[in-house]
Amino acid sequence: MSIETLLENYPPEVARLVWLARDKLLKRLPQLQEDLDLPSRILIYRVAPGMKGIVFTLSPSKKGVRLRFYRGRELLDPAGLMEGSGKVHTTISLSEKTFNNADFDQAAEKAHSRVNSPR
């Protein structure tokens, strides 16, 4: 299944947000590898194989799109973008406004640079 086929199952506004997010992330961080995880219905962005190489995932749902930060609790979040009550991972609910926020860009870059750091 392709990304296009996956997104056929979601409202047009959700599919549009996924395409915008992909474009933004891959232009900002071109070294990311994109993988489609069909059973989980998510897009995975990583810099190396395995869990340790994951930077974040894009999770579409019928109501919207979330950018999930792997080990997001380890990141500073002075702008308060991160959501969720998990002990390890965090999310950002995406909107077009999010993509024009410099804090979003900084969060994505910090997540990327942190991936290979020691725990």
Describe the structure.
With 119 residues, this protein is an alpha+beta fold. It contains four helices and five strands; from the N terminus they run ααβββββαα. It has a single domain, classed as Aspartate Aminotransferase, domain 1, CATH 3.90.1150. The protein has helices at residues 3-7, 12-28, 96-99, 102-114, and strands spanning 33-37, 42-46, 54-60, 65-69, 90-93. It has a five-stranded antiparallel beta sheet. The longest helix has 17 residues, at 12-28. The relative contact order is 0.17. The mean pLDDT is 84.
Structure summarized in a few sentences:
This protein is α+β, with helices and mostly antiparallel strands and 119 residues long. It has four helices and five strands.
Keywords:
119 residues, alpha+beta, Aspartate Aminotransferase, domain 1, five-stranded antiparallel beta sheet, 5 strands, 33% helix, 22% strand, globular
